[in-house]
Structure formats: C-alpha cells, structure tokens
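Researcher: Re-running this chain for the archive, since the previous output was lost when a drive failed. Same request as before.
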Amino acid sequence: MTGIIRPFRTDDAEAMAVLTGAAIRGIGSRAYAPAQVAAWNARHPGPERFLASAAKGDTILVAVNAADLPTAYALLEPDGHLDMLYCHPDYAGQGYAGKLLAMAENRARASGTTRLFTEASELARPVFARAGFRVVQRRDFTIPHAGADVAIHNYAMEKVLD
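Model: Regenerated structure tokens:
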C-alpha cells in the first residue's frame, strides 16, 4: 500500500463522490447483477453528503495517492455506525480498507464508543470479517429504480470493542 490516510477536507467531497460511483460500478459488479449495481449506484451520495457528514461531526478518513487525491475512505458516525467504506477499483486489494477500519476503530475507542456496526455489501463482508466484525444478519431489501423494485442484499455486521 502506498499513500497516506488523513482526515477529510472539504475539497475532497467531489472526488469522493466520483470514487464512490466508480467503486460501486467497478467492484460491485463482481458480486451483484447489473440491475442491482445500477440501482445501488443511482442512490450513491453526491459531494453534499460528505460535506453534511463532516459538518455534523462524523469522522471521515481518506486514503490518498501521491497526488493527494482520494483513493479510499471510511465514514464513521459518532454512535459507532460505519456508514461507508469505499475504495476506488484502481486501488482495491492494496490494504486500504483494512487500514481505514483499524483507524476508524481507534477513533471510536478514543471517543468511548463500545460497539461498531455497519451494513456491508457482499464484497465488503470479508473485509469487515477480517477486521473482527461478525455477521448479525443478512438484509434482503429492494431499491426502487427505473420503475421497478430491485432486490438486493447486504449484511448487518458488528464488532464489540473491549
């Protein structure tokens, strides 16, 4: 893994929105059908989501490349919810997700949080499992998209912090 992980800056928001879409389309297609990827991608957050999260006090950790451009990120809410963990396909498999999860866990522990929880995609589930999260349940649901309800799933996962 090259690059560093640093706190979110407001000028990262646009690149992170682009990164999120690239991850959903490029990595999500490895485990989800085209209609599922399209529905998931259609609801992914724009730059305003990151700005609002930062303004309300969420912790956003950003992995950047040598040019200081976001390559991966984790978004941790104060209650221990890991709302987002995405990596650009060009940087997947290089250890960013594990490093981001470890840093998010350290931040959570420092703030007194005793439990982390998330909703992990089929592809993110093993990454979270390697970080010590356990599956609570598979979540089957639908996403309205293009006039249809597209069935998709993810996993409710948690990690109790000792």
